[in-house]
Amino acid sequence: MDAVERREQAERVAAWTKFVKNVPDWDWTHLLQVIDFQLRRFAKVCASGHHSDGKKLANQMQEVRQLIKRVLDDDYLHDERKEHAKRWGRLDMRDGKSDARSTEVFFYYPKAKTAADKRRADRQEASIHRRWARMRQRDIDKLFSLMARNLQKWWE
Questions:
Q1: Rounded distance, CA 106 to CA 92, Å?
Q2: What distance in Å separates the CA atoms of residue 69 and residue 67, rounded to the nearest whole number?
Q3: How far is residue 125's CA from residue 95's CA, in Å, rounded to a whole number?
Q4: How many helices (H) and strands (E) does the chain have?
Q5: Which residues of 59-78 are buried (b: 16+ CB within 10 A; e: fewer)?
Q6: Which residues pair with residue 95 across a beta bridge?
Q7: Between helices 115-154 and 54-72, what is the axis angle to 10°?
Q8: Please, what is the angle between helix 3-21 and helix 28-45, to 10°?
Q9: What is the predicted pLDDT for the residue at 96?
Q10: Which residues have a Cβ under 8 Å from the Cβ of 8 and sit 6 or more positions away?
């Protein structure tokens, strides 16, 4: 290994060490962060002319990275969630009994004054949550589909 290769290897190790220091092991989103980190590094190499289709490959990687970012940023239905919170208040909880040993907890919307309001707020929240979950899952499916379709081309 010559001096240039040793320097490049040391830079890679330093970059990964810095990255891994800040990524815990306990959440599936951290796996997405690892994928994003490596795609960013490899897209940079591709875009710099080290691959015959480098620009095209870098764009494909960027598309996956954008999906990862949207998933990690939880970038879904912000306006709807904000409007729901404005109308009904933020979901809160309180203990069900004054007994210190009680494990009963009640969730409520502060602005839902009647039982009908509570049911309406619950239905709206459930609808928002279902749409949020579908949107996020669609992005996860798409990012892994793009990776499955292109992965071997990226590292030829």
A1: 8
A2: 5
A3: 21
A4: 5, 2
A5: ebbeebbebbebbeeeebbe
A6: 105
A7: 160
A8: 150
A9: 64
A10: none
| Contact criterion met (CB below 8 Å) for 76 and 136 | yes
- CA angle at 133 for the pair 91 and 116, rounded to the nearest 5°: 40
Q: What pLDDT, on a 0 to 100 scale, did the predictor assign at position 62?
A: 96
72-114 pLDDT tens trace: 999 899 999 999 999 999 888 776 665 666 667 777 888 999 9
- CB-based contact 70:132 (threshold 8 Å): no
Residue with tokens 């962060």: 33
- At residue 139 the predicted structure's pLDDT band, cuts being 50, 70 and 90, is very high
Residue 151 has pLDDT above 70, yes or no: yes
* Residue 21, token pair as written in the block: 């220091």
What tokens were used for 128?
A: 């928002």
Higher pLDDT, 98 or 152: 152
- Out of 3-12, 96-105, 144-153, which region has the weakest mean confidence (pLDDT)? 96-105
- The domain segmentation of the chain, as residue ranges, is 1-74, 76-156
- The amino acid at residue 28 is W
